[in-house]
Amino acid sequence: MESIVAEGLTKRFNGFTAVDSLSFTVEQGEIFGLLGPNGAGKTTTIRMLASLIQPTEGDAYVGGFSVRDDALRVREIIGILTENPSLYERLSARENLEFFAKAYGVDEPKTRDARIRELLEFFDLWDRRGDRAGTFSKGMKQKLAIARALVHEPRTLYLDEPTSGLDPKSAKDIRDLMERLSQREGQTILLSTHRLEDAERLCDRVMIINHGGAMSVASPQELRQRATGAHVVRVGLRELTSSLSKAVEAAEGVKALDVKERALSVTLADEGYTPGLVRSIVDAGGHVMYVVPLEVSLEDAYLKVIGGE
Fold first, then answer.
1. Which pLDDT tens digit goes with each residue over 154-165?
2. What's the number of domains the chain is made of?
């Protein structure tokens, strides 16, 4: 089931095209990453999908509702963390969540109070619930803003740089929360981030955008494989001889071979040739200690796409 469908989504500001004909889908329960340099159009895309600004051309559907024609319904079913989280700094942490919970229609007091306590305790803010948000550190404000986005239990969540400004433990808590929401509760998450390690760990698929246009949509693994154009494995051997090297070079599917002490880095046409490679080594009298795939990082793949190499 598709949670988000974008069709030719375009936004222009005074003749400048910030987002250019984006078309993509996000499945229910998927964590979908938006990657790209500053100014690529990520935040503008999120703001259109949240019905905060109108597209110049095209449309998008969130939970079946048009961001153009059903803007109020879209805002009711999503939660959003913007790049610069807006909080009422003169209100306490608890008062902030109460205000937004009521705005989203969480009217039953017991339900609302239980949800607020659950979120403040999860983010280690319960002991500061009575303190004004303006006295909080940047990281604490970020956690309160995420709690605000979750207070009405939305089915679709937009997070723009959610771990920005957080200490390592808090950043890990946010990553764990995203995994739990996606895997256990089926929540759809659109994640815009500069932290490629977050995208590599969390995202089912990512879309790399630059100058407002989509350059690639794929899983992190597919992007890494595209960056190498082949499958590379490292084979550890008890002993390496010239006859073993020759046997590997002659094996089906081998495109290149790099010898390093008692290990071989073997480039294969695809991963399906790996079992045949191992058989060739064993048949030649070799003792295989390990076989591990070697992949470029998502960062390397991202830079290759952005650089147009």
1. 999 999 989 887
2. 2
Q: Please give the model's pTM, rounded to 2 decimal places.
A: 0.79
Residues 242 and 213 placed together within one structural domain of the fold: no
Counting residues of the chain whose pLDDT is more than 70, the rounded percentage is: 98
**Residue 230 identity (one-letter amino acid):** A
Q: Which domain CATH number covers 153?
A: 3.40.50.300
Task: Check whether 203 has a pLDDT greater than 90.
Answer: yes
CATH of the domain at 288: 3.30.70.100
Q: Given 218, 241, 275, which residue is the final one in a domain? A: 218
In this structure, the answer to whether residues 177 and 271 fall within a common structural domain is no
3-state DSSP of the chain: CEEEEEEEEEEEECCEEEEEEEEEEEECCCEEEEECCCCCCHHHHHHHHCCCCCCCEEEEEECCEECCCCHHHHHHHEEEECCCCCCCCCCEHHHHHHHHHHHCCCCCHHHHHHHHHHHHHHCCCHHHCCCEHHHCCHHHHHHHHHHHHHCCCCCEEEEECCCCCCCHHHHHHHHHHHHHHHHCCCCEEEEECCCHHHHHHHCCEEEEEECCEEEEEECHHHHHHHHHCCEEEEEEECCCCHHHHHHHHHCCCEEEEEEECCEEEEEECCHHHHHHHHHHHHHCCCCEEEEEEECCCHHHHHHHHHHCC
Q: Which residues on neighbouring strands pair with residue 92, listed in sequence order? A: 132
User: Of the candidates 149, 190, 178, which has an alpha carbon nearest to the alpha carbon of residue 46?
Assistant: 190
Q: Provide the residue range defining the domain that includes 13.
A: 2-218
Structural domain includes residue 302:
no
151 assigned to some structural domain:
yes
The per-residue pLDDT for 309 is 43
- Listed range (1-5, 52-56, 69-73, 113-117) with the worst mean pLDDT: 1-5
| Cα 37 to chain centroid, rounded | 15
Do 180 and 287 fall into the same domain? no
| Assigned domain for 51 exists | yes
